[in-house]
Specification:
2 copies of one chain form a homodimer.
Chain A (H helix, E strand, L loop, with lengths): L25 H4 L2 H16 L6 H8 L3 H8 L2 H11 L1 H18 L6 H18 L2 H15 L5 H22 L5 H20 L3 H5 L9 H19 L5
Chain B binds a DNA duplex (30 and 30 nucleotides) through helix 4.
DNA sequence: GCTTTTATTCAGCGTTCGATGATTTAAAGG
DNA sequence: CCTTTAAATCATCGAACGCTGAATAAAAGC
């Protein structure tokens, strides 16, 4: 047992009232608004919308609860802001990646190459984009599985990207029907969702043989698994 | 606008106090304990643990909130009871199905046949087991994606079934490595999870071309998609 | 330099939450 | 028949919740 009394009021910040004086080095502290979003992103990704209180968000961000409402209005507005913040970056990058791939490989596109181009951005952000991106990945995964929240943002940013992917797949599998491709994507989407969530289930199931956090390996397996899956659900070429 | 005043106290039940007199036809009303579990199952599957209040469960079950605590103790105990109720049935049936398939097809097993045997029980329960089973499917899907809850039950009932499946897959793909099979299962698990959740995301994405509720179609696609995927991630046979 | 705007904490309101002890009624047990 | 146990409601408690109006301090604008 530690002798530290964590309940003691550590006067780390005097909690001055009113607008804070402007600090020069804006690289360190970052924006207050952003730090609230960071805290909310972290907590929402772990416990869901109802499992997080405004007080917890405010405490983790180091601000008063009223400030959360000042910036984002009701709790739902905070959630939407968190979900929106990275949605555009995330999807623009995926779409650009597959467009670039298609342009550089006219006539020689492969399913493996195209899917890898589409899947790699989220994996890379989750790996190297800092903790915020990892939390966001888990949040998207969770939201995709239960779209009570984020439904509108999903439709606005995520659906067009997926439709573009399916368009390009049609160039590789010209005999494929739309309905086949949508169902195939659905299977891939579930795999992607579960993987980005990094729940640790696989670690336990495999007795440590596989590690959820090993996203590079996960991406490789997913590309191979899904490419074969897409081919299998489409009518064979003549 | 309806002229009905829905706030008026409809005296549908006088709410008598004390132990209720025994009713003869126990086929109609069902057990009170079970009806609380049914209500909780429905609500938890839609809104998650924190998104449901004891009061809502009690109201939907038509009982007092104190009765929920009488049967299940704390709220967490209620959730665990919901999750446990069908876990054994669900997994015993899956394991029996693949064991039966393996015994009836010694030496002639196919991946398609084995996976179909393993996947069909949950799909069939969700389709024909009544609304309770559909809610439970969604709950399992959600819990698999965020195992803050149900982790222990998952490990106790679900992991052994999956390990048995992988054992049998090894008979079909003898050259496969364990790590390949676990990662392949992980991909399938995500697809299964998302599909059983019936979130409606695919309906919207495909502009109505695919229907989430069409589980028979979903199962067919999943068997074909995953069988090819399993083969693709394993070293080719010599 | 004065005024307005922005960013922040404080104090607390009304509501809802999970949970409990007391009470009531009927069944079960001898 | 009497006692004990089981099954239910009622009334309510203290804590936590989302949210807000007022106060305050610095920055921005003119």
């Amino acid at each position: 047992m530690s002798k530290l009394d964590v309940t003691a009021p550590v006067p780390v910040a005097p909690a001055r009232r009113g607008r804070p004086p402007k600090v020069k080095a804006q690289g360190v502290g970052g924006d207050t608004r952003e730090s609230i979003l960071d805290a909310a992103e972290d907590l929402f990704s772990k416990h869901g919308f109802y499992g997080v209180t405004i007080r917890e968000v405010a405490r983790e961000a180091g601000v008063d609860t009223a400030l959360v409402h000042y910036y984002f209005g009701a709790k739902r507005g905070l959630f939407d802001a968190v979900f929106l913040r990275r949605a555009e970056v995330w999807n623009n990058e995926r779409v650009e990646a597959i467009n670039r791939y298609a342009l550089a490989n006219v006539g020689t596109m492969t399913l493996e190459g195209l899917l890898r181009a589409f899947l790699e951005p989220p994996f890379q952000w989750s790996l190297k984009g800092g903790p915020g991106w990892k939390h966001y990945s888990a949040l998207v995964a969770q939201t995709n599985a239960n779209p009570t929240f984020g439904g509108e943002t999903m439709a606005r940013y995520y659906d067009p990207a997926i439709r573009r992917l399916i368009e390009l797949i049609k160039l590789i599998l010209p005999q494929a029907r739309d309905v086949d491709l949508y169902w195939a994507w659905h299977n891939l989407s579930g795999a992607l969702t579960l993987t980005l969530g990094e729940t640790g289930r696989l670690d336990r199931l495999s007795s440590g043989l596989c590690r959820s956090g090993d996203l590079e390996t996960a991406c490789d397996y997913m590309v191979r698994f899904a490419s074969a899956g897409f081919r299998a659900v489409c009518p064979p070429s003549p």
